[in-house]
């Protein structure tokens, strides 16, 4: 019985450690994206004369894809939420 409780506590601790690690990774990725976004925006601003309104469209498209990525990483997409509800 004690061995089962000890094993259960170890599994809980391992899961907690994985969750914290994932949170740290996601937080870092979010901060890193802000840096990349600033670089991309600056480059698109410089190309504004050539690209015109397309530069805004490019940035909006990139932002939408990144939003989808973070939604999937955080497992907030409808498919994952349905699977967790089962």
Which helices and strands, and how do they pair?
Elements (H helix, E strand, L loop, with lengths): L1 H45 L1 H4 L2 H20 L4 H8 L1
Structure summary:
The chain is mainly alpha-helical and 86 residues long. It is 90% helix and 0% strand.
Description:
The protein has 86 residues and is an all-alpha fold. The chain has one domain (25-85). It has helices at 2-46, 48-51, 54-73, 78-85. α1 (2-46) runs antiparallel to α3. It is elongated and about 60 Å long.
- How many distinct folded domains? 1
Main sheet attributes: strand count, strand direction, barrel closure = none
Shape: elongated
The radius of gyration computed from the alpha-carbon positions, rounded to a whole number of angstroms, is: 20 Å
Order of helices and strands: HHHH
Strand fraction equals under 5%
What is the CA-CA span between the terminal residues? 30 Å
Q: Give the strand tally.
A: 0
The low-confidence runs, each spanning 5 or more residues with pLDDT under 50, are none
Structural class: mainly alpha
* Helix content percent band: over 70%
Report the mean per-residue pLDDT as an integer: 78
Number of helices, where a helix is a run of at least 4 consecutive DSSP H or I residues: 4
Any descriptors?
single chain; 86 residues; mainly alpha
């Amino acid at each position: 019985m004690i061995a089962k409780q000890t094993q259960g506590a170890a599994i809980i601790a391992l899961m907690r450690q994985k969750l914290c690690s994932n949170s740290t990774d996601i937080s870092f990725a979010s901060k890193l994206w802000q840096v990349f976004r600033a670089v991309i925006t600056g480059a698109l601003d410089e190309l504004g004369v050539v690209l015109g309104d397309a530069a805004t469209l490019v940035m909006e498209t990139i932002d939408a894809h990144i939003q989808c990525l973070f939604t999937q990483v955080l497992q907030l997409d409808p498919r994952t939420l349905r699977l967790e509800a089962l």
